[in-house]
Amino acid sequence: MQKPPQDQVPTLQQVWDSVEELWPAALAESWDAVGPVTGRPEREVRRILFAVDPTEAVVEDAVEQGTDLLITHHPLLLRGVNAVAADGFKGRVVHRLIESGCALLTAHTNGDSAIGGVSDVLIRSLGVEDAEPLTAAADGLPGEGLGRVGDLPRSMSLAEFSERVFTLLPSVAGGVRVAGDPDGLVRRIAVCGGAGDSLFDEVRASGADVYVTADLRHHPASEAREAAQGGHPYLVDVSHFASEWLWLGDAAGALHRSLADQGFSPEVAVSGVNTDPWDFILVP
């Protein structure tokens, strides 16, 4: 088969189509809002930027870089709105994007559930090569679904594993919190990028020794530890932003390859803006 000529410029619609192939909207949870937010389908796309959050700082950075399409993991407009006037930050973001000719697209829980998605990248980065979803996607292909679980090549102490998590993730004020015996051995690892305390039943059913996720609230975490009676699964609580940031590089690479296969060669990059909301922490 003859390869298409390189250096063609894709339209926004063509990039949207590639995104849909990689992270199908059908994989999104029913409450989610994914897909295009702003942008004209016929516009040419020469530069694409990935980020976790569509904050004003991220959008300003994207505009200053001459970005044609900003792809974020988290939605800007998750819930219904009646207006996007620029007297609030979401309205300002919408106006800045449109006035600057920068389109916005969201790949949220579809980016979580897809093969090669957020949790796939997280567990693979921790050293687990063969993982399966904690909960399968409805009508999805094998391997699709929320969370991942699999085995490390060797057992290690919880302290050593937690250090691996800490070293892997970007630096944030909250650091990494751990519940469990530092000397306890772990090998079977469960993860869920982003907030994952709704998956405790699936984690226990998977036989995981430790669960890595974000935003663990007091009561679900306390009840999980009580149920474990000091044993497995241990808990490793990380930054929501940090747990999902790892995916951006893989996602950018996947989209670049998809477009290159069609003869397109836009620049695809990852935002350097840290959107973790916390600035500092006080500890004893």
3D architecture notes:
With 284 residues, the chain is of the alpha/beta class. It has two domains: 122 residues, Udp-n-acetylmuramoylalanyl-d-glutamate--2,6- Diaminopimelate Ligase, Chain: A, domain 1, CATH 3.40.1390; 124 residues, Udp-n-acetylmuramoylalanyl-d-glutamate--2,6- Diaminopimelate Ligase, Chain: A, domain 1, CATH 3.40.1390.30. 34% of the residues lie in helices and 21% in strands. The chain is built from nine helices and 13 strands. It has a six-stranded mixed β-sheet with strand order 5-8-10-11-12-9, sandwiched between helices. Strands 1-4-3-2-13 form a five-stranded mixed β-sheet, with helices on both faces. Strands 6-7 form a two-stranded antiparallel sheet. α2 links the parallel β2 and β3. α1 packs across α9, α2 packs parallel to α3 and α5 crosses α9. It is globular and about 55 Å long. The N and C termini lie far apart (65 Å). The mean pLDDT is 95.
Name the CATH superfamily assignment of the largest domain: NIF3 (NGG1p interacting factor 3)-like
Order of helices and strands: HEEHEHEHHEEEEHEEHEHEHE
* Number of discrete helical segments: 9
- Categorize the overall geometry: globular
What is the CA-based Rg, rounded? 20 Å
**Helical proportion?**
25-40%
Give the terminus-to-terminus CA distance. 65 Å
What can be said about the biggest beta sheet? Answer: 6 strands, mixed
What's the CATH architecture of the largest domain? 3-Layer(aba) Sandwich
Organism: Galactobacter caseinivorans
Family: Belongs to the GTP cyclohydrolase I type 2/NIF3 family.
Protein name: GTP cyclohydrolase 1 type 2 homolog
GO molecular function, one term: metal ion binding
